[in-house]
Prior knowledge:
- The protein has one domain (9-214): Orthogonal Bundle (Arc Repressor Mutant, subunit A), CATH 1.10.10.10.
- Helices cover 51% and strands 7% of the residues.
- It has helices at residues 9-24, 33-40, 54-66, 87-91, 95-107, 112-118, 128-139, 182-220, and strands at residues 31-32, 70-73, 82-85, 147-149, 161-163.
- A hairpin with an 8-residue loop joins strand 2 (70-73) and strand 3 (82-85).
Amino acid sequence: MSMDIQLNDIEARVLGCLIEKELTTPDYYPLTLHSLTAACNQKSNRLPVMSVIDTDVARALDHLRTKHLGREAHLAGSRVPKYEHKADEKWGLTPQEIAVLGVLLLRGPQTPGELRARTGRMFPFRNLEEVEETLHELEKHDEGRFVMELPRQPGHKENRFVHLLSGEPLLESTPTTLPAEPAMLQVRAENERIADLEEAVQTLQNQLSELEVSFEKFKSQFE
């Protein structure tokens, strides 16, 4: 059964970010519009890298709301609106399925091995077979076909999988690349770890800025 939902690029990025942040930084979830925009524009763990503004994200959130995939969260004591996804509720996805779908939304087509490595902070897959089983469950899910397997690229041992929430990809436009050398893979992994640390610092800075704004608003009530 085909999916009855079609997300544009920004909607897919917003949904992926909400899934990611819920699973990796639950203390800061749901997200404010400002934090969600920053998450969409991250340079690490994103493909492609985007540059969106608050109004782009707000429009995407509104569209996700009409598709029953997102909503404004009403939290006691919160002085600014915050937003959360409803993908697991809408489709009845398991924790491992939502983790895999989130990474595919954020980083495009990936092999089972890449998915296992990149979902580490979202869901602790025990082995590659568990990832492959989750992908096959998403291929034949009762709510629709969430992913599809792409033809194997020359020089690669593993097939890649892609999400179908934005429709089926144009296979003829899929580029073929040579496999990366071990040294290059090591450098890329180190760069990703550094980028993750920079992202964590930026998240804390964003949260501090929001707290300062909320405190100033609170203080002004007594002046």
